[in-house]
Design a protein that fits this description.
Uridine Diphospho-n-acetylenolpyruvylglucosamine Reductase, domain 2; Enolase-like, domain 1; 33% helix
């Protein structure tokens, strides 16, 4: 690990003021710290957001579910309010990594990192979420822009992520058994905005699968999802799974998610 300056502000204004030069925000640290230990990432300054209390918390009302950026995966998974209002979101959070990762990792850190196999990005896209920052609101459809890249500007601070209530929604993933990342993960929802299908693990960053959305808009059934043949062009391929295998998994995981959503 390279040397760096460490700051731990206690409010948002101080966090923004501390973000100077070659700086990075530190959320749960489940990705950034590991990369820094391996010298795959280096920054002159880390601004630890763990002391900013108003970035944590969960709010559920008639308009939807709002999760503070520094709220851990474990807190989302355990929330009775989230389980009642949007069970798909609680179940997604509960499927991330292992207990240690869920106790430390945060929703803001996860979406800002835009890992191609992370779970939350599929959830944001599949549920039609909005990313709130200290400067603006960014629809999930415009947030993920590339491999480990997002629409965030340097120093822009995620404050919360909000999700509309979806009458039917679920997340299903095919896990890589060691890391528990998604070889492919699919979040489906059917709500006021129609059918949405968010996919992670398949390409360089999470995306919406239009062919599945069209098929499920006509028939929200597992059979309709299975019948869609997703082309493998642009899909990831590695020692765990080839592009064609991942493409086939998208329809399979979508079918499982639709079955789970319909059974609620």
């Amino acid at each position: 690990m390279y040397a760096f300056d460490y700051q731990r502000p206690t409010d948002r204004a101080a966090a923004r003021a501390a973000f100077q030069g070659d700086a990075r925000y530190l959320a749960g640290g489940q990705s950034l710290v590991q990369a820094m230990k391996l010298r795959l990432s280096a920054s002159e300054r880390l601004v630890d957001l763990g002391g900013v209390a108003d970035l944590k918390g969960i709010k559920v009302d008639s308009s939807g579910v709002t999760i503070g950026a520094m709220t851990t995966h474990a807190a989302v998974a355990a929330s009775a309010d989230v389980r009642k209002a949007l069970p798909a979101l609680a179940e997604l959070a509960g499927s991330i990594g292992d207990q240690m990762v869920r106790n430390m990792g945060t929703i803001g850190g996860s979406v800002a990192n835009s890992d191609p196999a992370a779970d939350y990005p599929a959830g944001l896209l599949g549920l039609g979420a909005t990313v709130h920052t200290d400067q603006r609101q960014i629809p999930a459809d415009k947030f993920f822009t590339g491999l480990y890249e997002t629409a965030l500007q340097p120093g822009e601070l995620i404050t919360a992520v909000s999700f509309p209530i979806a009458p039917k929604a679920a997340y299903a993933k095919f896990r890589q058994p060691a890391s528990r990342f998604a070889l492919v993960g699919v979040c489906v929802s059917q709500g006021a905005g129609g059918v949405r299908v968010g996919v992670t693990g398949a390409k360089a960053f999470a995306y919406r699968e239009a062919a599945l959305e069209a098929a499920l808009a006509k028939s929200f059934t597992p059979e309709a999802a299975k019948a869609v043949q997703v082309p493998s062009a642009g899909f990831n391929g590695d020692l765990h799974a080839g592009a064609e295998y991942r493409a086939a998994l998208v329809s399979v995981m979508a079918a499982r998610a639709v079955a789970a959503a319909s059974a609620r």
